[in-house]
Amino acid sequence: MTKRLFPIITLILLTQFAFSQKNLVPGYIIRGSQDTVRGYIQDRGWDQNPKEILFKKSLAEDAVKYNASQIKEFKINGGPHYFAFIVDIDKSAYKVSQMEKYLPSKSNVRDTIFMEMLDRGKLDLLRLRDESDKYHFYYNSGNGTPKELILKIVFTQNNGMTSMLITENYKAQLKDLMVECQSVQQEINELKYVET
């Protein structure tokens, strides 16, 4: 019995070790003291922005779990680049099925999160896809706090019928940010609140 049990336990341990090494890709983290630590990040191909990551300095070490309050940023080589911020997030409903769960007066939540950098420049463009699969786009000028580009969807019920009102505040926000660039003002009117 003991002779049969040993190979089974060995197989289980080897399987767990192989699984724990899965999707470890080169990358780096930056901690609060601005020091860059190179190593390996477990790439989970996040559909939603990660709440935490697993990081190893070397493949031989144990993985360490980090969240957005513990590191400033992380990047997977050739892949996404995430930055940690404390931001206000519009948690209002964007689907009819969520309408009763969200009250307009409680729609903004402050949280410390990882946000994916989409474009860097005078204005950085960042993205958050939250736990309800709602996309949020933010802009940041300099080293300040990112501000959300607002797309408000308000649901109302009247005589058993649900109506939806969409307010595209993000267009006015972008026009204010790019007031000196008249050539893009008309293009902003055509912008959709999606990543292309």
Write a brief structural summary.
This protein has helices at residues 2-21, 169-177, 185-190, and strands spanning 24-31, 36-42, 52-56, 64-67, 71-76, 81-90, 108-119, 124-129, 135-140, 147-149, 152-158, 161-167. With 196 residues, it is an alpha+beta fold.
Describe this structure in words.
- This protein has 196 residues and is an alpha+beta fold.
- It has three helices and twelve strands; from the N terminus they run H-E-E-E-E-E-E-E-E-E-E-E-E-H-H.
- The protein has helices at residues 2-21, 169-177, 185-190, and strands at residues 24-31, 36-42, 52-56, 64-67, 71-76, 81-90, 108-119, 124-129, 135-140, 147-149, 152-158, 161-167.
- Strands 4-3-2-1-5-6-7-8-9-10 form a ten-stranded antiparallel β-sheet. It has a two-stranded antiparallel sheet with strand order 11-12.
- A hairpin with a 5-residue loop joins strand 8 (124-129) and strand 9 (135-140).
- The chain is globular, with a radius of gyration of 22 Å.
- The termini are far apart.
- The model is unreliable at 10-20 (pLDDT under 50).
